[in-house]
Write a structure and sequence with these properties.
The chain is built from 13 helices and 15 strands. By secondary structure, the chain is of the alpha+beta class. It is globular. The mean pLDDT is 90.
């Protein structure tokens, strides 16, 4: 019957049958009643009803319906007190009385501002960290005020960006490094200098000492990257959650007439990628236990490598457009550059730098959970791309990257020298991966070579 009350009545037998199915026991049949009273309110405290072959209507029918509804709802008003579980038995010596008290409090955690990490834990973790001191940060992390205050120097404009994601490695220090690097990438790609950062962190609830330790190590890793970039951590928000997560809102400074945007690619330019691809498929494999340790080590070394120096090299060589390759994959970010530039792009799959093991993971059919959404952008690839659509390298242009490299167009005359300078600066896999063509009449801006 299409009535909510029967859905509620089906709950207990459904729960029982789920238990039976999981334990291999036979299921119990459920048979709802065939005849029932139907009551429908028509407004103005008037209702109609039916049972068997009889029909009813009137204000008294509405009163009957109201009485039945109120009686039903009352069952959920006065609920019995929740029974407390028996104390967890922990062997002597494994935890002191204070730790046992904290463990018992973990069972139910509040939301809202009640989910914030306690002030003592936060203060102890942060007092061991020293943010970069900048004269243009007037009120920063170590001040008691409600918000940070920064100064914009004359002739400069502010560049704002934000990134946030869950942890994908167990080491909070390395995770902090990667999260900060990832957030800074947008600022570097636009030719800006990072000025300040606000952190948003989620730390798994647990004993205070463990929360403090995790928060300290994660923010230590992040602060090392922020300090290298010259950005001062000026504040943030830290809350409890079921898993570790970290993000940053980055403020940068740039000359108004020197902002590098995505839409500046010119025909004849060469396309340069500074870091290898494959973090998405590699960490998807790692979650399944199918990645080799050296693959993950190689990927992490790439992810903690800052784009700061690479951006300086690209700009010195006259880069005409730039972006950082992150969640939308190489193709997604390339399309974001090609369309506003009103150009076509020739992308050479065989020239793409890859992380060790990335192609192995693709061959094994292992992809990031974001891969299917990125693959929808294949409509931007021109048909007849010399068989490149069948290349085993194709899935890697859709692979979402975390803390990926910079993708930039540079004048043809500067391309070779730019690659040499990037390799000298610590980007050994930097490569020319394509060239920019005049815009054609085709709807698809990307041609693949293989």
């Amino acid at each position: 019957p299409k009535a909510g009350v029967f859905a509620v009545r089906q709950g207990p037998p459904l729960a029982e049958n789920l238990r039976r199915a999981l334990t291999g026991r036979p299921l119990k049949p459920f048979r709802p009643q065939n005849d029932f009273l139907s009551l429908v309110s028509t407004g103005d405290k008037y209702a109609i009803g039916s049972k068997w072959s009889f029909a009813l209507e009137g204000d008294w029918v509405w009163k009957l319906k109201n009485w039945i509804d109120l009686r039903w709802m009352a069952k959920y008003y006065d609920l019995p007190e929740m029974e407390e579980d028996d104390a967890v038995e922990i062997a002597d010596g494994l935890a002191d009385a204070e730790a046992l008290k904290e463990i018992s409090a973990i069972a139910m955690r509040c939301g809202g501002c009640g989910a914030k990490v306690g002030t003592d834990v936060l203060s102890r973790a942060l007092q061991m960290l020293e943010p970069v001191k900048r004269p243009d940060v007037l009120i920063g992390l170590n001040e008691p005020d409600d918000a940070a205050v920064v100064e914009v120097p004359p002739g400069k404009v502010m560049v704002h960006t934000v990134d946030f994601f869950r942890a994908f490695v167990d080491d909070p220090y390395i995770f902090g490094q990667v999260a900060a690097n990832h957030a800074l990438g947008d600022v570097f790609a636009m030719g800006a200098e990072p000025q300040s950062a606000l952190a948003v962190a989620s730390v798994p609830f647990g004993p205070e000492a463990k929360v403090e330790e995790t928060l300290f190590h994660m923010m230590s890793g992040a602060m090392q990257v922020l300090a290298d970039a010259g950005a001062s951590l000026v504040g943030g928000h830290t809350s409890e959650a079921s898993e570790l997560a970290l993000g940053f809102s980055i403020n940068g400074l740039a000359d108004k007439d020197k902002i590098l945007r995505k839409g500046g690619m010119k025909p004849g330019d060469r396309l340069i990628l500074t870091k290898p691809l494959g973090t998405g498929t590699l960490f998807a494999a790692d979650m399944r236990g199918d990645a080799k340790g050296r693959w993950i080590d190689d990927a992490l070394r790439s992810m903690v490598k800052s784009n700061r120096v690479g951006a300086g090299v690209l700009f010195a060589r006259g880069a005409t457009a730039c972006t950082d390759v992150t969640g939308f994959g190489l193709l997604g970010h390339l399309v974001e550059m090609a369309r506003p530039s009103e150009v076509d792009v020739e992308l050479d799959l065989n020239a793409l730098p890859l992380l060790d093991g990335a192609l192995d993971c693709v061959r094994n059919g292992i992809f990031s959970s974001l891969q299917p959404q990125n693959v929808r952008l294949r409509r931007a690839i021109r048909n007849g791309s010399n068989g490149a659509r069948e290349s085993e390298l194709l899935p890697l242009i859709f692979d979402p990257q975390t803390a990926g490299g910079l993708l930039a167009s540079v004048p043809e005359a500067e391309a070779t020298g730019c690659i040499d300078a990037l390799k000298d600066a610590g980007y050994p896999t930097a490569a020319i991966v394509g060239r920019i063509l005049p815009q054609s009449n085709n709807l698809e801006p990307i041609t693949l070579l293989s």
